[in-house]
Fold this sequence. Notes:
The structure holds 2 protein chains of 2 kinds.
Chain A: H1 3-7, E1 22-31, E2 34-44, E3 49-53, H2 60-67, E4 75-80, H3 85-90, E5 94-97, H4 109-119, H5 126-132, H6 148-159, E6 166-170, H7 178-193, E7 197-201, H8 205-211, E8 214-219, E9 222-227, H9 229-235, E10 239-244, H10 251-255, E11 260-266, E12 269-274, H11 277-286, E13 292-298, H12 301-319
Parallel strand pairs in A: 3-7, 3-8, 5-6, 6-7
Antiparallel strand pairs in A: 1-2, 1-4, 8-9, 10-12, 10-13, 11-12
Chain B: H1 2-14, H2 16-33, H3 50-81, H4 83-87, H5 94-122, H6 130-157, H7 160-177, H8 189-196, H9 200-211, H10 218-241
Helix pairs in contact in B: 1-5, 2-3, 2-5, 3-5, 3-6, 3-7, 3-9, 5-6, 5-10, 6-7, 6-9, 6-10, 9-10
Amino acid sequence: MSATExxxxxxxxxxxxxxxxxxxxxxxxxxxxVRAVADLSxxxxxxxxxxxxxxxxAGKSTALDLMLGLRNADTGTVRLFGTTPAQAIAAGxxxxxxxxxxxxxxxxxxxLVSLACDxxxxxxxxxxxxxxxxxxxxxxxxxxxxxGGQEQRVRFAxxxxxxxxxxxxxxxxxxxxVSARQAFWATMRGQVDEGRxxxxxxxxxxxxxxxxxxxxxxxxxxxxxxxxxxxxxARAGARRITFDLDGTVDEPALRALPSVVGLDVTxxxxxxxxxxxxxxxxxxxxxxxxxxxxxxxGLGLEQAFLAITDAASAEEAENR
Amino acid sequence: MKTLVRLEIVRTLRNRKFMFFSVLYPGLxxxxxxxxxxxxxxxxxxxxxxxxxxxxxxxxxxxMTAVLMGNAERIAREREKGWVRQLRLTxxxxxxxxxxxxxxxxxxxxxxxxxxxxxxxxxxxxxxDAWQWVAILAATWAGSMVFAALxxxxxxxxxxxxxxxxxxxFYFVLAMLGGLWVPITTFPHWLRTLADYLPGRxxxxxxxxxxxxxxxxxxxxxxxxxxxxxxxxxxxxxxxKDTQKA
Lengths: 320, 246
């Protein structure tokens, strides 16, 4: 079974699209010969926190642009709350923070946030938005004199100026240091707790792991995985087994053990990537081996992500 | 939307360098062009001094420069920086954006017109009735909005690099055919007919009719209103439709 077949279960989304927050149906978008988004179908449900992952050039930004109506699909349909993106935005149901979104210059942070509140049909009070984005202390500063992390917070304030049902964030924590990132996600959790649907694209996989209850992986414009972080890790062959062996290590024998996905031997140290650690270890003992310093650990989402995107690339190369 | 209009005006006022040049440039040009002119010399066949003619022409020309050039380039730059993308994620309608941009342009054009008129009255001894001064100011100011809208539209079509040359081109053609540099009476007949239906000439003649003591011609007003609707409509449409990453 190829990775693509395994991973692209449409989940519950395929069944019930009526109450969908976001619904992509067979969406394609090309720029010249490059297919930025290919046959993309996905459904987001109310209250979900969804991470959108993918290597650079995977089509994340294009997918978000299509979702927000900043670009039009070549074929297929994009619906937000059952309407067009433009209608959903005009109704004040969507807040978005774009990586490419510039800010108005020569005005103060507070003036800019007041503008966002003024334009939002279901706006919050300016003071509350400033506080919510943790920028009350820089409210009087000029927008063009902010650090990268502060700018991101201002963008976040613009995206949360009113009672949106969907919040879309493109790489929201780029340019923030670790503590700022943690503070940011604490703020974001507040939004999630209020029942918002949140979709964020990120490069920091630990963020996806910690925050998202659903992870989408895009690769060359295609959706190659859709599930919880745990599911994706499991499907990628997600246990790492490490132990030492006395005497010479019989590599072919180890490779033949059940559930082994990857093997790496350095001197006496054996590293196995397995999709069923119990079965693998059982047969290690059954083979009469006596492993020392045994460690079994879960793969991080990062390794899982690399494993499935590599697999997708390899498959693509084979088909070519 | 009120906040957007207010912020656009405020940040234009805060941009001192831009304000300084846009506001003073028409006045300086007026002084330079009329430097050697005899203050009492009248234009051939007209009961109007050359200096008065140039005063009205330069106030119109200057306002046009300020709004056309300033708008086009600033908008193209804003688009490149992604502010317009961010703004498109709000409920702001296209006409709201265009209105705010025209309002900020009008903030620049009003003082630039005023300065030319004040220089005319004080340094160049131009004498007109009180109502004429007020009417010239009002008409020239209102007319400048047509070119502000054109500036918005150009800012939308062009990248920041070419916005300036493109607006220069428009502005030379419109100013030239508008008789803002040389009296239009020197043009061949076919060119004068063409000029009547481009926005430059009707714009200049608003103030000139008032100088002669008449109301502006209805046809000029209609032509200008048509262009205003055309340019604002195009600009608003481009704002909503713009799918370039830029």
